[in-house]
Design a protein that fits this description.
Number of helices: 15
Strand content: under 5%
Distance between the termini: 13 Å
Shape: globular
Helix content: over 70%
Largest sheet: none
Low-confidence stretches: 1-8
Mean pLDDT: 82
């Protein structure tokens, strides 16, 4: 076997590829969030209530059928499990609220700053070393975000923008917790998060005022799209550092406004396409540099063994 073949097939490289595929699939799934929220065509609290309830019910059924002690994580890591579930739940509440109060482009652009918060928290708590290429990628991605944001100015209120900033910090913090404690089972956390969402929304919601069509889109979102996306993104922290996982949220920045544009005609500003191109290019270069780094490390290790 050649050195190159050993490098490509190394456990580290395979783990990285698995993590990248998982997070890419999860972020692609979550990019349909804004479109489904718009299609539901109902008030904010109704969306939050049904999204949370459907998510809780679908995952609770899976957990009960799959194992005897589906919520044991809340006994082993009681405090951390509750904190993470709360962050999942409130993060979804903030996201839906932001979408309702400002443009889709504004919301997802600001939320894509989550990797910066994740990197800062990872550094503050000394969880792991963040490579220079990830810091550079975050910087370049935020430049792309700034371009998109510049084209979106004036299209949404400051309330929605402020909520989006809180959402970004929320997601960055939760990704850091999940990376630091890989033994936290993700599915029970997201199941409880759905219940937290429903409980927060219940006093303000009018759930039975939703039309049949709206309820259909909320069911698609809560039963399939949201649980799938959140579980995949959470699972990817087992394979990749949290800032790198957060970096993939910029894919949502590009795709969410495009889905809404294609289906509902909510045209993104032209700068969205320019900034989106910068973001996608940054991700591609970051992936390539990461794989090259792994190959070099494996070549050095192989040389020492021989």
């Amino acid at each position: 076997m050649t050195r190159h073949a050993q490098t490509i097939g190394s456990p580290e490289a395979r783990q990285r590829k698995v993590g990248l595929m998982i997070v890419a699939t999860g972020v692609t799934a979550i990019s349909f969030d804004a479109l489904l929220i718009r299609l539901a065509d109902t008030q904010t609290w109704n969306v939050i209530f049904w999204r949370g309830l459907f998510t809780c019910l679908s995952l609770a059924l899976i957990l009960v059928l799959r194992k005897k002690a589906p919520f044991a994580v809340f006994g082993r890591r009681k405090r951390l499990a509750w904190i993470s579930a709360f962050l999942f739940g409130t993060g979804e509440v903030f996201f839906v609220s932001s979408i309702m109060f400002t443009s889709v482009a504004n919301t997802v652009v600001i939320i894509s700053s989550a990797p910066l918060f994740a990197a800062l928290l990872t550094r503050i708590f000394r969880i792991e070393t963040i490579p220079l290429r990830t810091w550079l990628a975050i910087g370049m991605a935020l430049c792309g975000v700034s371009v998109v944001f510049a084209g979106s100015l004036g299209q949404g209120g400051m309330l929605g923008v402020s909520i989006a900033v809180v959402t970004a910090f929320n997601e960055g913090g939760n990704l850091t917790i999940l990376r630091r404690y890989p033994d936290l089972e993700r599915m029970p956390l997201i199941c409880l998060a759905g219940l937290i969402m429903a409980c927060i929304a219940w006093p303000m919601a009018e759930p039975f005022s939703v039309s049949g069509q709206g309820l259909f889109f909320l069911a698609v979102m809560g039963l399939v799209q949201t649980p799938l996306a959140l579980i995949l993104i959470a699972e990817s922290t087992l394979y990749l550092p949290s800032p790198e996982v957060g970096l993939f949220y910029v894919v949502e920045t590009v795709m969410s406004p495009i889905w809404v544009w294609c289906v509902l005609g909510e045209v993104p500003p032209s700068l969205t396409f320019l900034g989106g191109g910068m973001i996608v290019t940054t991700l591609a270069v970051h992936y390539w540099l990461g794989m090259r780094e792994f190959r070099k490390m494996r070549q050095v290790a192989w040389g020492r063994k021989t």
